[in-house]
Specification:
two-stranded parallel ribbon; 3 helices; alpha+beta; 2 strands
């Protein structure tokens, strides 16, 4: 992927994530309160996109891994 594609994907996911948040959570973000978001995805491109999208909305990332 190119850096432009990465940025495009991050911005798209950021918008989807933000739109899916409840109003209460959006208010917490605006007040600068801590909001935690779980990120469960395999390592790779999807993880990078999710990581940066969560940072872009101002939340704290809680990375999770699937144990087998």
């Amino acid at each position: 992927m190119t850096h432009i594609q990465l940025l495009t994907d991050v911005l798209h996911l950021r918008n989807l994530l933000y739109d899916s948040l409840e109003d209460k959570v959006k208010e917490q973000l605006w007040r600068g309160e801590e909001v935690y978001v779980n990120l469960l995805t395999p390592a790779g491109y999807e993880f990078a996109v999710g990581f940066f999208a969560i940072l872009a909305i101002g939340a704290i990332i809680v990375p999770l891994c699937e144990l087998k």
